[in-house]
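pls read this protein:
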Amino acid sequence: MMFCANCYKEIPAGKSYYKHQDTNQSYCSLDCLNDHMIYSHTITLEMSEGAESTEEQDNDE
């Protein structure tokens, strides 16, 4: 019997799942894998600098 390392729900036999290759932990969905990775590792969403950005920026100089 296998359980998701994030939500602890049972992963039924014959069902596909995600496996972290370094830790061998199993995850029932990509959402659970992402949740675990975000909280157990330092992962941030960042914006690259350049002229392609569509967001307005305040330049109070």
Q: What stands out?
A: The longest strand covers residues 2-3. Strands lie at 2-3, 10-11, 18-19, 26-27. The mean pLDDT is 82. The chain has one helix and four strands.
